[in-house]
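U., I forgot to send this yesterday:
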Amino acid sequence: MVKFYNSCFCLFGNPVHHSFSPEIHTIFSNQININYFYKTVLVSKENLKNSIKNFFVKKYNLGANVTVPFKKEIIKYLDNLTERAKISRSVNTIKKINNKFLLGDNTDGVGLLYDLNRLNFLRKKNNILIIGSGGAAYGIVPNLISKKNLVYIYNRTNSKSKKLVKYFKKFGNIFCLKRHELKKYYFNLVINATSSGIFNEIPDVPNSIISKNTYCYDLYFNKEKYTPFLKMCKKNGAINLKNGIGMLVSQAAYSCFFWHKKFPNIENTIITLNKKINL
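Result:
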């Protein structure tokens, strides 16, 4: 039987072949009883503008998500931003308004915070290390520093870390570290916000920053329980290890609410998705 959809949404990114977003939004569609279709769209920096234009020119294409490496690049092609997108200078969700205006939002930060609280990974006044300073880091930093945490940024290219820290300094306690300085600090929580896992790589950090008391979280996840980053953390004694499946579902739920004004069940979706991919 052919299924007819009321609207269509997509994920722009490169790569996108690994994404579980279509499966997540199929679950959401059934939960909130809104019949919408969701697909992935592989784009390049050169054709990003045309891809957005060609997608949204269709009447029933009402929204989209954006993933690496376009969360900052996408902003120049939007008409307006929500407050949290303005603060984070990063967009992962787009909504078409009145069939002509494109509004950008960022649900990464609220999604991560939801998942960290769900997992009990946050304590009062954490020392948090974020590895990476791209669009993903920009999306999550505002929510983490708003909770009175001390946030440290490390990136292989120190100038990028400095740029991020300089911008967010006015919002809370955030600092930039070079690689050799990492050994001097103790971190309660280490978050990998790089795309290293997509390429089966490990971010370049000293093993000494990870111990059995370190909570380790990777924004990325695949069909294995542990990403390359989490495998490294486990090897160095960490026992509190979580991949980004919870954040993926949580940020998607906030995107779904942004589009439809209905909030899906995050816990049930995580359980369903874990069963689907045998985690």
